[in-house]
């Protein structure tokens, strides 16, 4: 069982990862985050 604090911490880490990936790809505004990265992130989120 996870506490609300753990859930908030996990959400904050996920947000930071998302922001860092966006920043890494922001240099080329025409390029989207590759689908394989998005799929990997989704798989990691599902592993609770």
TrEMBL record:
It comes from the Bacteria. InterPro entries: NepR. It holds the Pfam family NepR. Residues 15-47 form the Anti-sigma factor NepR domain. This is Transcriptional regulator.
């Amino acid at each position: 069982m996870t506490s609300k604090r753990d859930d908030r911490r996990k959400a904050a880490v996920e947000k930071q990862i998302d922001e860092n990936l966006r920043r890494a790809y922001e240099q080329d505004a025409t390029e989207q985050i590759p689908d394989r990265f998005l799929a990997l992130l989704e798989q990691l989120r599902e592993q609770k």
